[in-house]
Structure formats: C-alpha cells, structure tokens
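Bug: token stream looks shifted between consecutive jobs. Job 1:
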Amino acid sequence: MTAIAAATAALADAAFGGDPQGGSSRFACRPRFSPLSPCRSAPPRGPPVPPPGLPGAYEAAADALVGLAADALGMGRFGVSARLLERARAIATPEGSRQAIRLSWVSAELAMVQGHGATAVEHARRGVDAAAGHPSTRHAVKSDVVLAAALCSAGDIDAAREVADAALLATEKSGLIPLRWALACVLSDIGSATHDAAQISEIRDLSADTVRRRGGVWAGA
C-alpha cells in the first residue's frame, strides 16, 4: 500500500504544471471550488455546448471540465469528479489531443484512489497511446508516470518498475524535474531494477531541492 500512496501523492504534486504545485493540479485551486458543493446532489447533465463558430471551444470546455474534475478529486469529492469526467468524455476531441491525454490521467487517478486498479490501468494505457502521437515530451513521460502508478495500484509491481525505470531515464534526458521526483518517490517504495535504494533517494532529494531553488513550492508546504 505504501507504493500506491507514494504514487498517488507524487501524481498530485506533478499533475499538470511545470512545477510541483502545477497550475491545474488538484491542490492548486482548492479554495476556489466551494461552488462545486451543489453538484453533490445535482442530476447528470449533458456536455456543455459552446457557442457555434468559436475555434477551440470544445477543447477549452473539455480542458475546463478535466481541471475541475482534478480539483474535485483532490478535495475527496469523488462523485463530483466522476460526473465531471463523464461530461468531458461526451465532448468530441481528437484521440491524440492534449485534452484526451489529460482526461486519461485524471480518470486513472480517480480509479486509483477508489481502489479500482484494473480500471486505472485501462485509463492509463489509453493516455500512453494518446501521448504517443502528441508532440509534447512531457505528456509522453507523464503518461508513463501515471501508468506506473496505476500498475502499482493493480498489484503488478514488476511491470510498474519496468515502466518507472524507463520513464526515469527519459526525465534525465529531458530535464523534467518534477516528474523525475515523482518517479523516484514511486521507485523508493517498489525498488528499481537500474538503481539501488541510495541512488533513488538521492535522485528524489536532488529533484526536490532543484524545484525549490527554481522557486517551486510543494503543495501543502
């Protein structure tokens, strides 16, 4: 269970931004979403219908819904998060789009915190497939981080270790420090096939220090 807890905490801090607090991460906007409370008993509604002729309107709507779902998840409002994700899925966005990738991430994380490991892996693999056609290296690596965590939650530790080790190498090459920290947190619990425990601890601590030196603030710190 410690691996699952570490994976979930790591994902929370490395979620959607370039620093640990991460822009649209699930802690970043916590005070703003008290208006979500009425959603607890509200009946399901259809997807939002943006004004016609507005370029990118559907993508923007999907982005907003996924961001709200991530924040609801961070507040423990799993039902609200699930309903927002369903509305996001109802919006037609391209398979390899950023919106589709982020939808897979948050869907996987929701499944993880609810104890649905197999479902989390399904969502995470969809994210990996979608990210394969996306130009962002960060989205590809983050999708592997989510998959490693999902595999942990499903109890497939060997597969999680393989994915996490490969992604850790990718973060070294690309300089994705917050994701490097997240992976080191996961590997510190499940063990690495390519680094010993002391090396993983050093990577984790150095990554955290680098983020602080660059002005990042850990969520909850």
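Job 2, same session, no restart:
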Amino acid sequence: MYKTMIAGVTALSLTVASAQPAQANGFSDEDVGKLLFGLIATYAIGSAIKNHNDRSRSEPQQVERAAPVHQGWVHRPNRNVLPRQCLQRVGTNFGEHRIFNRRCLRQEYAFVSDLPRRCAVRLFTYRGPVRGYDPRCLRESGFRARRH
C-alpha cells in the first residue's frame, strides 16, 4: 500500500515539475513529452490503485468448510418428560393433592436441577411434610409426565 502511494506522489511531483515551462516563449517538444509522460504515469498508477482496491473488496474470502460428519444415532433423553411413578397422591387436612415427589424424582430423573423452582411445593401430611413439584405448574412450564 505504501509503495503505491509513494510511487503516486513521486509521479505527481514529476508531472507538476515538468509542467512548468522552462522558457517564457512556450512549450518545446521535450516539455510536451515530459508532460504527456507524467500524465500517463499518474493515470496508470491511479488505475492500478483503484483496481487493487476494487479487487480486494469484490472477491469474497474463500472459506473451505468440512462436511458435517454424522456420528450415527445419538439417543438424547427427553428432558421435559417426567417419570409417571413419581406422580403421587398425597392426603392433607385440606384434601387430596397430586405432586411429583422430590425424592422419587432424584432417583428416577437425571435433570431435577433443571426443574423450575417456582413449581416446588411442600405439603404437610398426616405423616409429616412432603416436598415435591406441582404438576400443573410443571405442565405450564413445558414438562409432562411419561405415558406409561
């Protein structure tokens, strides 16, 4: 970049220096030749710089990407499906309630930490407090119970 800029400045200075007449009576053949040479050199350098800039902008970078490799069938557990056996009926002083038992979920479901905390409940039964998750809240959050 700097080489072309220096060459352009040099050609321009040569053009300006040769454009001034040496004599007051007019241009000689030699002066006209110097002037034409300077103008042609300036035009050539300017067009070379323009072509270089246009080429670098218009040509997109060629990025070679590797083809995706299929590793075969990868079984991913569905995180939004909860085990049906953890859905239990719990009797309290206010009637019977259904909850997903927290202890059962810890044993049967690997992603208990991903369950929404706002769905956590604690029910007081005849046998003591039971911790779990409200099925309706979990359903509204995108979770569901396994069918069988």
